[in-house]
Amino acid sequence: MPVTKTAKRALRSSKKKALINRTLKSRLEIAVRLAKKEKSGKTVGEAISLTDRAVKRNIIHRNKAARIKSGLSKLLPKKSSKKPKKSSKK
Question: Which residues contact 51 (CB under 8 A, 6 or more apart)?
Answer without folding.
Answer: 28, 32, 60, 65, 68, 69, 72
